[in-house]
From TrEMBL:
It comes from marine sediment metagenome. Gene3D superfamilies: Tetratricopeptide repeat domain. Keywords: Repeat, TPR repeat. This is Uncharacterized protein. Pfam families: TPR_1, TPR_11.
Amino acid sequence: CLEGGLINKALADFNRAVKIDPEHPDAYISRGVVYKEKGFLDGALADFNRAIEIDSKNSDAYNNRGIVYGIKGIYDKAMADFDRAIELNPENKKAHENRIITYRKISGSRLTEQDKYKNKDKVGYKLKL
């Protein structure tokens, strides 16, 4: 989590990076993360969308966009983005974690680690464990 002047410096740096290479998805992803941290969710979504336009196979872009959708309470889009992030990169641990967190919000349940493994057959399909 960036604080104070650091977040503003980071934003300035990523703005420069986008101007230097407007076809580099990581610059948009990084700036989108800063926008999210500052609470500029629409700006973050725009940057994650742009990153996906540039590279439709970028797992991190989908994961980060899913986080913003989750913050906005648009859980169906969040889950779709986490699913896509995992499809593109099954090793993306953050996307797996975010999907579980979002599923908990949707279901209103609190799955413990023990529940997750004990009931794998029951909840595994929904969580894709």
